[in-house]
Amino acid sequence: MFIKQRPSWAISESEVTPESVYLNRRKFMSGVVASAATLAMPGLLQAKESSKLEALDYRQAAEYSTDEPPAPYDDITRYNNFYEFGTDKGDPAHHAGQMSVDPWSIEVEGECARPGRYALDDLLEPHSYQERIYRLRCVEAWSMVIPWVGVPLADVLKRLEPTSKAKYVYFETLHRPEQMPGQRSLFSTIDWPYREGLRMDEAMNELSFLAVGLYGKALPNQNGAPIRLVVPWKYGFKSIKSIVRIRFMEEQPKTSWEMIAPSEYGFYANVNPDVDHPRWSQKRERRLPSGIFRPNWIETTKFNGYEQQVSHLYKGMDLAKFY
Ligand SMILES: Nc1nc2c(c(=O)[nH]1)N[C@H]1C(S)=C(S)[C@@H](COP(=O)(O)O)O[C@H]1N2
Ligand SMILES: [Mo]
After folding, report:
1. pLDDT, tens digit, 9 for 90 and up, residues 136-171
2. C-alpha of residue 234 to centroid of ligand 2, in Å
3. pLDDT, tens digit, for every residue of 18-35?
4. Which fold has domain 13-314?
5. Which is nearest to 33 in space by CA: 25, 41, 45?
């Protein structure tokens, strides 16, 4: 994940007002169809238009949400990392439409009382959706505010009844080369499928979230449809997309970026301005949308600003060693 200096003018400065439209909606008609749904998306040839994505029922979880304005829908859905579809930021929006996400099932295995293959709807059925507006900080030093819709990860995991041996939980992304051009690439550095994992107490933290939507509608494929992890105090690569496998484990799992470059990307990957990436500083981040006249560099904060909710998880740990 080299910092690709994408020219800053390539990111829409977009003062178009989806966020204000959106904020009004939040204020006055909570839980109804997102207005952002009507946005035109001329650039997207293959991805489903947002107006065709299912509208979700949800309640606001204001206590878990930032007041910072969410990035416009266009930025969230056109500037992505999803290497299964290519390494350029625009590749996922262009190619992820090829991925079929219905039907979808998740294989649950390992240290739990309820292993098995679950249809996505069965896994989600007992839970009601919340909206959480989280900061997402990529290890490449850009960030966005994103209004996710989904369920707390802990609620889903508890129903699967992890045993006392379950110290970690591991996730895998879909491996389907015929629909994922990045998986067919001979130059890919990733040993597919994309893998991630959390320590059990991290997974059970109130902030860990399984997103199925954004801006009130089903997730567009490029953002990890139909279900992806969101761990807002960690670098974005922990937030694995399009999940097909959940495994409860006794040992710490091997994760994709750690496998590629263990000296650069650790298992923990907590956002930390005091621990630089070997090739660049982590002290600041470019908050998107940004532009040539408004680069919008801001200070990076420890645990991405979620220190109060998560710092207890790392008490006594040397965060420079466990990066
Ligand atoms: N399967 C998979 N999940 C992934 C990635 C990926 O390449 N493949 N990229 C990660 C990275 S580096 C980031 S920053 C976030 C980006 O999420 P977004 O595109 O929804 O903003 O997804 C993460 N999840
Ligand atoms: Mo990232």
Report:
1. 999 999 999 999 999 999 999 999 999 999 999 999
2. 10
3. 333 434 434 433 433 434
4. Sulfite Oxidase; Chain A, domain 2 (3.90.420)
5. 25
Q: How far is CA 59 from CA 27, 31, 32, 146, in A?
A: 12, 6, 10, 16
Residue 73 Cβ < 6 Å to ligand 1: no
* 282 CB within 6 A, ligand 1: no
CA-to-CA distance for 47 and 122, rounded, in angstroms? 26
Q: Element (H or E) spanning 124, and its range?
A: helix 120-124
Which helix (H) or strand (E) covers residue 171, if one does?
Answer: strand 168-173
Which H/E stretch holds residue 59?
strand 59-60
Give me 230's structure tokens.
């969101």
300 Cβ closer than 6 Å to some ligand 1 atom: no
Mutate to test the pocket of ligand 1, among 217, 237, 257 (most ligand atoms within 8 A of CB): 237
Model pTM score: 0.88
Q: Strands 209-214 and 130-137, how do they pair? A: unpaired
The domain ranges of the chain are 13-314
C-alpha of 53 from chain center: 18
